[in-house]
Design goal:
Number of strands of chain B: 5
CATH topology of chain A: Phosphatidylethanolamine-binding Protein
CATH architecture of the largest domain in chain B: Roll
Structural class of chain A: mainly beta
Structural class of chain B: alpha+beta
CATH class of the largest domain in chain B: Alpha Beta
Number of domains of chain A: 1
CATH topology of the largest domain in chain B: Structural Genomics Hypothetical 15.5 Kd Protein In mrcA-pckA Intergenic Region, Chain A
Shape of chain A: globular
Low-confidence stretches of chain B: none
Largest sheet of chain A: 6 strands, mixed
Number of helices of chain A: 3
CATH architecture of chain A: Alpha-Beta Complex
Shape of chain B: globular
CATH superfamily of chain A: PEBP-like
Oligomer: heterodimer
Radius of gyration of chain A: 16 Å
Radius of gyration of chain B: 17 Å
Number of helices of chain B: 8
Strand order of the largest sheet of chain A: 3-9-8-5-6-7
Largest sheet of chain B: 5 strands, antiparallel
Number of domains of chain B: 2
Distance between the termini of chain B: 28 Å
Order of helices and strands of chain B: HHHHHHEEEHEEH
Chain lengths: 172, 201
Amino acid sequence: MAAYVDPLVVGRVIGDVLDMFVPTATMSVYYGSKHVTNGCDIKPSMAINPPQVAIDGLTDQLYTLVMTDPDAPSPSEPSMREWVHWIVSDIPGGTNPTRGKELLAYMGPRPPVGIHRYILVLFQQKGPLGAVQQPVSRANFSTRFFADYLNLGLPVATVYFNAQKEPIRRRR
Amino acid sequence: MSRYRGPRFKKIRRLGALPGLTSKRPRAGSDLRNQSRPGKKSQYRIRLEEKQKLRFHYGLTERQLLKYVRIARKAKGSTGQVLLQLLEMRLDNILFRLGMASTIPQARQLVNHRHILVNGRTVDIPSYRCKPRDIISARDEQQSRTLIQNYLDSSTHEELPKHLTLHTLQYKGLVNQIIDRKWVGLKINELLVVEYYSRQT
C-alpha cells in the first residue's frame, strides 16, 4: 500500500486534492505508447486525445473516473483549483471509459505557466448513478465535494502526471 | 565560474533582505530615489524578482541555477522543494548556516582557500553537494581555526536549523539530514522560480 500512496504524498496529491486512502483497484493509463506513472512528464501535445484507461475488476461493479488539475492557472497561485478535465461515470469493471457515460467531455492539458499536476482519480460506485448534473464550470471544481455529493466514498485508485507548456518551435 | 562582484546594497534595495549576500538590511523608506515606480508589477517581473532573490542569495550564475532547476525537475516530488534542498546542501551555504562564515561569499572564500575539510578531506569547491552524515570541519592549522573562530564570534547567533549540528570547540559541523522546507533561510516562493523557468514564450 505504501508504495502506491507515497508518490501521491510526495507530489501533494493527497492533501491538495484527496484524503489518504488505501488503493483497492488497479488502473493503468496510457497516452499512446507512454505509460502514465506517478510524477512522470507528459507533453501536452501527447495528451490532446483521451488516454487509454484499463480498469481491473468485475463487470458488475461500476466506477467513476475524474481527471483534474489542482494547479490552475499557476502552481504559485491556484485560484481556479481544481480545473476539471474529464468525468466519466458508470464504467463497468474490467473495461475502459468508452463503455461508461461521459458527464464532462475530455479536455487535454493546456498549462499556461509552471509545472501542472494532472490527477486521474477512480471511484467505485455503490450502484448506477442515473441522471447526474454536469458541472456548471470547469473551474473551482472539488473532487472531494463531488465524491461526497454522489456518495462515492474514498478513491480506489489514483495516478498523476506532470505537464508544462511546450516551447514554441521558432523557424530560423 | 564567475560570481557577482557588484554592489550588494543595490541588490537588497531592489529585492529585499538577502542574508546570504550581505548582513546589511535596507532601511525602511529611506532612499526615495530607489523606491520602485508606482503601478502594478507584471507577472513576469514578479517571477523574475523571485528568481533573482534565489540567485543572489546563494551566489549562483544563471547557468548554475538553470542546471539545478533541471536536476530538480527530474527528481521525484515537488520541483520547487527539491530545488531549495539542492541549494541548501551546497557546502558554501552549509558553512554560512553553521555560522562559520557571516555571508555566503565569505564561506566561498573559506572553501576556495582550502580551509575546510569534509569527512577529513580538503574540499575546495563551494558548490560541493553535502550529504547526510557529512562532517564539515576546519583544517587542522592555526590560521584556519583563527579565521573560523573570528566568524563564529562575530556571527549573530540565530537558531541553528534542525538538519545541522555545530560543535564549536572542535570547529566542526555535522549534516544530520536533508533540510526541511520550513528551515530554509530565505523568504521565497519557490513555485514562482519554477514557473519562471517553465515559461516559454
